[in-house]
Amino acid sequence: MSTTLPLFWHLSSASKKERLDASIKLIGALEQFQSQFVPANDSGATSGSGSDEEEEEEEDKEGPSKSDGLDFLNVQDVSYSIRRLIRGLASPRESSRLGFAVALTELLSRVQTVTCSQIVALIVNGSKIQNSMSGQEERDVLFARLFGLTAVIQSGLVVRTGTLNTSASAAADVSTLSSFEEVIKELLLLGEKKSWLRESAWWTIRLAMDTLKDSQVTWRDDAVPKVMQQLFVDYDIWSPEKVALTLKLQALYPDQDWRKLCSPAFKNPDLLHTGNLQNLARILKESAVEDNDGKDVPKTTAGNWKPQLHFVWDTILEQLLPGQTSSQSLPGSFQEFFRIVVDESLFSSTASVERKYWGFEVFQKALPRVTQDTMPMLFTKNFMRTWINHLSKPDRYLHKIAQKTATDVQAFVQNNPQLGFALILQLTGVNGNHQFDKLTKTKTVDNILTTMDAEGIKNYIEHLLGQMNGPSQTTEDIRLINSRRSWIIEQLGGLIRSGSIPKNDDWVQSILDLLVVHGLFIVKKKDEKSRFLALHSMPNPVFSDELRKSCRTRLLACISDLNTQTSVVKLSEKTSKMSAVASDGEFQGSKKPVDVFVDTIIGFLEKSTAYMRTVGNQVFALLSGAVQESTIDLIVTQLERRDPAELLKDANEDVEMEDIDENEQDSEDSDDESDEADAGDEGDGDSNDEEEDVVLRRKIEEALRVNGIEAATGDSDEEEELMDDDQMMAIDEQLAAVFKTRANEKKIGKGEFIVRFNLHRSHEVIDVDVQREATHFKNRVLDLVDTFVKKQPSSPLILRLLSPLIDLVSGTGLDERQLSDKAKSILRSRITKSKDIPQDIKSELALTIASDVHTRARKVHSSDILATLSQCSLYLFRVLAHSQSEEPLIQLYQESLADFLTRKNSALNSTFFQDFIRRHSPSAWALRNDLLDLSGRAVNAYRQGQAYQLLETLMSQLPAMENVNSSEVAEFTSRLQEVLLEVVTDACTDKKSLSAAQLKEVLKLALVAARQNHRVNRASHTEIWQPDSWYSLAGRLSSSERFKKSTGLPKMCEQLGRISNPGDVSLAKVDASAPKMKRKAEESFEMTDTSNATNATKKLKRKRAKADKT
């Protein structure tokens, strides 16, 4: 045993692979040992594998007494292993029970030297319950007995043929009838001891009966009545396990007297017979029955609930739903079985949630087995009610199992798309609800529709059309009919909207036809021969105005959806994907004047429908290449703000024209004087009132008719006596709705102009909803603008869009922020950043727009809007430069620069000019003299400093200016040197009140200009910059009482002097240390001027605070 003992440890491993490997090695080793074994009475030989030490170890473990007889015909290792494996079945360690059971089953199936009675005795003796055992220990031994008996059955030992010499003088059968009965008896006792063991014990009994049926033992026929006696006579309590075993035995042994065996619990020997279903429902529900003493009620057992469904349901479903390929006859009606046993038992209103959980599991097991004929039987009343209730809210107990059921239903339709239509009929039918998806907050119906084939969709549409009208004589509430019709319209639209549903021209056309007929017309006569299905019957009752409006809205949405979807069209011998076409390539549009098209599109934009958002933009994108100036003007007009007084005047003129037309019509019919004309007018009014009364009367009569009350035709008193309180209450709400609708119509008629007038008010109290709708309309118009710019970036018509877009950016209020942001986005992200430049532009138009941009920039007081105007100006400069017409725009920049530096209230900032200098530095070079001259006339020192900063930016761009003449640079830097030298000198003599920080900016400009001049004009550099004057100025700054603490300023002057003298021998060393000196000078300057800067900051804050208060 030295080679087998270590393997027992691995049988308890949690790893399945390790357990199987250990079992294989153990069984292999034991087979090898057994093959070498020779019984002692034959040759006196001993086992080839046992040793004295191993025998002593075995004796220590098993004790001296061995009366089981295993050692007579088996090698010691085999005997020990059998006993060890049986004892290990009761071990609670990890997976010992599984590993030892597998090894024991395999060993018993291969070792032919043991009898069934020997092994059963070992199992029973080794799993006895002692009084001193704890609850856990008792459970362990019970499981050990169950697993051991199962191993005996699965190994085939219980029905093995042959005899064995159990001793030198005796022989015994390997399996006997008594041992088989003992196994059945022990399993029955196990099921009785613990209810949670009953299902497993009876499943093992069922396994034993299957094994007996397939065996060849001589006592097989004698065993059947013995077992029947044990199961049905001695044990008369019925349980789900017994039902499952009975159904199995009836199929295996149909010749038994099943009527006698099943009575008195069941009247019919066929357990699934309709007459037995009530008793069967009680048994399968596994609930205790208080009236067990009743004659017709079987004795049942109450089991502990567990989420796993009992195996009896598999047995029942196999017989009631055998599948299409099975030829066996059905033992009962599945419809009646599911209704009584499942729907009225597990799904009853009084059933617990645990039983309903079982009901959902039964449904899930039955669903894959059903066919088109049997599937409706699953969707019963109680099941659908329970499913919808628990699926609708996530806090319900059975919400997860209800969701899993919905998932299984969808997966079932994916595998069986031909059953999709039948399934939808159940979900939206009598037991379900046509608002199934809405109630359950799922997309079950929608997902099922996506998996259906074209034929199923067609059948579904025909079903919906059949539900449009109620019976000819009906008392159904008109609100329910309208609600159903509204749902049907939504369903039809959803079929077209979903891109995953396979489209077919026939059913798509039928949906569009229905929406057209009921949306645009009133059906007054049916025509069964018409190609329009909606005309094959008269709508009863007639469609309401709200439903007709819904049809029109849905029609436009369907057209929009069809235009966005692609279809595979076969043209000649090739196939291609095309949008907005049917499968034959139709629905192509014909050419029309572009203005008419765009005007039509804008008309659609006035209504916020899906048609506007998709078809409008798509059609406009296709037409963008044909857009003309008049088209752009038409679009731009929609973005303008109109004066309310002008709108009022136009509206009054329209009203006057209508009155004139009416008077002219009256004058044609009569030549009488004015009083007769007035009387005629009053007559017209009376006739109109009569017409309105007729319409109102018809509506009231309709409301009465729907509730089964005919309109008054005779003595009203008699008819009033026929109406009771319930009837009056029934029509109360509908009459109120009729009168309310009539009142609303009058209000709308009076307030129509007010709505249109409010649409354009700007300074008066306005309707918020109306203004919001106007803003949304302009937003949709901006979509057209964005589409045009994106499709035609090089069109010269883009320039005509700049001013209207700028108006939107700068002229909208806070309530139109979205409109302003969208216009700004088009300007800054779409137009000004475009790489394409408009061709063949009109320079005069571009200059006019540029002049307007600069005029706005000088007055606008928003940095964000000013940045947008700057981008527009740069874009216009790029456009004009492409056509070599940029000179006038440079003059505009010069004028704006003068406004910025000399006018205190100018809204411009330095960034406006810096952008121009950096983007177009060669052209900005023309601003150099203006900057220098205007710096001396600046409105204050701050603006003067900004002028010097702009000059610094301009001078730093000189390396990028390839075509700049060096003589121009020399001339300008000479002037600049004189001006800067004079400014610094005046600051030292207090002629100009410049701070140290401002003076530093002046010197920085001088340093940049000197370096750039040295790069361009080396020969005349010293002559222009006069190094001696800068050295002299450094001394004056050092001795100045005002700037003597700012040590960085003299050092910057000295640096200028060194740069101005390139012939100095020490220039190289100075230049090498220049960055370090510059940094030290700046640090010294900053340290010495900290107090000055702090004072200046405080003064600036005080000024700003004062300005804010003002």
Look at the helices and sheets and give the structural class: mainly alpha
Helix content: 55-70%
Evaluate the radius of gyration.
Answer: 50 Å
Count of extended strands: 4
- Main β sheet profile: 2 strands, antiparallel
Shape: elongated
Report, as a whole number of angstroms, the end-to-end distance.
Answer: 107 Å
Low-pLDDT residue spans: 42-65, 288-295, 587-592, 643-690, 714-721, 746-766, 1065-1094
Major β-sheet strand ordering:
1-2
- The average pLDDT value, as a whole number, equals 78
Specify the number of helices: 52
List keywords for this structure.
two-stranded antiparallel ribbon; 1% strand; two-stranded antiparallel sheet; elongated; mainly alpha
Spell out the blueprint of helices and strands.
Layout: H1 5-10, H2 16-35, H3 40-43, H4 52-62, H5 70-73, H6 76-88, H7 96-110, H8 116-126, H9 135-154, E1 163-164, E2 172-173, H10 177-193, H11 198-213, H12 220-233, H13 240-252, H14 258-262, H15 277-285, H16 312-320, H17 334-346, H18 353-366, H19 381-392, H20 399-415, H21 420-427, H22 436-440, H23 444-451, H24 454-466, H25 478-497, H26 505-520, H27 545-564, E3 566-571, E4 574-579, H28 594-605, H29 610-623, H30 629-637, H31 644-669, H32 674-706, H33 716-721, H34 725-758, H35 768-791, H36 799-811, H37 817-831, H38 843-859, H39 863-882, H40 887-902, H41 910-919, H42 921-924, H43 928-936, H44 941-956, H45 966-988, H46 996-1016, H47 1021-1025, H48 1027-1039, H49 1048-1060, H50 1067-1072, H51 1074-1088, H52 1090-1109
Antiparallel strand pairs: 1-2, 3-4
